[in-house]
Amino acid sequence: MSTLDGRILVTGGAGFIGSALVWALNQRGHTNIVITDLLGSDEKWKNLVPLKFADYVEAGSFREHLRHNPAAFGKFSTVFHLGACSATTEKNAAYLIDNNTNVTKELAAWSLEHGARFIYASSAATYGDGAQGMEDTNDELQRLRPLNMYGYSKHLFDLHAQREGWLEHIVGVKYFNVFGPNEDHKADMRSLVHKAYQQILTTGRVQLFKSHKPEFKDGEQMRDFLYVKDAIEMTLHFAERATTAGGLYNLGSGEANTWLTLTRAIFAALGREPNIEFIDMPDVLRGKYQYFTKADTTKLRAAGFTKAMTPLVESVRDYVQGYLVPAKKLGEG
User: Fold this and answer.
1) Residue 224: its pLDDT value, please?
2) Of 45, 112, 137, 312, whose Cβ has the fewest other Cβ atoms within 10 Å?
3) Across the beta sheet with 33-37, what order do the strands follow?
4) Which pLDDT belongs to residue 130?
5) Tens digit of pLDDT for each residue in 123-137?
6) Is the CA virtual torsion 282, 15, 198, 270 positive or negative?
7) Is residue 202 over pLDDT 90?
């Protein structure tokens, strides 16, 4: 039985994945949605304009009200907690612990106490360089070694949920490299597809980092690239069908593709010949760079998710031609 029939809370609902999730909920006829976010001074508010929802509350105000009165916002059937600082270069550890770890602790405890289905964004960044594997099991979490403070802030909540016995009742989704519409506000955290599109418009070429490991040629570093529309279908699966599933789940395409493959798909979507330049990787990134990621989606499939992933070339074409070229948001036109 779906848990989407009642009121739905989406934190980070103006952001990239959050607004895509609200769009997908709208596509399914759901509009009884409360959105929280930190709108700040960027333009992610534009992601909200085409969407249908019942109310918007600033995240700080929402948190403060819940602290003083847990019943302040009424009852929700499902909580999608996607709000977080997702900057892998953020160095303010105290901020990340409070914003990413502590807020998730508070919302998870509140959701469990009030009978709401709690689905939250963990991250593939918790796996670090992948030396300890990228299997989404609940029993080997202590082995993981995130490479940046963002990944560690996510890892700390996963460990907390495990200690509290919560992982049997809540779902943590580990998104791999997600790209797609509604990400244009993310500055340096935008996907290569968005950055490359802008580079091609202004310079006619795309810059990629050189490899600093001999086992990977330039441009042949590999990632599991996941289209946001597929990421949302996977996420909603845990509220629509796998409503009793608990634990951590990898959300990825299950394939590893090179940056060259992705970049060539972008040029192809624009009807242009590839023009690629390799540049040195900044020193600040060299020790924290993932050279290979690939989601093991066995556990996701075992939870009943049967939909096929959109092939990379097709998803890049949909994004570039359907959203970047016409400058459209999800839900527009």
Assistant:
1) 96
2) 137
3) 55-58, 33-37, 8-11, 78-81, 117-121, 171-175, 247-251
4) 81
5) 999 998 888 878 898
6) positive
7) yes
Instruction: Say which residues have a Cβ less than 8 Å from residue 214's Cβ, sequence separation at least 6.
Output: none
Q: If you classify domain 8-179+225-254+294-309 with CATH, what class do you get?
A: alpha beta
String of DSSP letters for 119-176: EEE--GGGGTTSTT-----SS-GGG---SSHHHHHHHHHHHHHHHHTGGGTSEEEEE-
145 token code pair? 């070694």
- Residue 46's nearest CA partner among 293, 328, 333 is 328
Cα–Cα distance for residue pair 180/312, rounded to 1 Å: 11
pLDDT mean over 99-123: 97
115 CB-contact burial (10 Å; exposed 0-12 / middle 13-18 / buried 19+):
exposed
* CA 200 from centre of chain: 25
Options 150, 152, 175, 323, the catalytic residue: 150
As a whole number of angstroms, the distance between CA 170 and CA 246 comes to 5
Which pair of structure tokens corresponds to residue 164?
């509290």
Question: Could you tell me the pTM of the whole model?
Answer: 0.95
In contact, 208 and 278? CB cutoff 8 Å: yes
Could you confirm whether 289 is annotated as catalytic?
A: no
Catalytic residue among 105, 186, 195, 328: 186
150 is catalytic: yes
Q: Tell me 108's DSSP state.
A: H
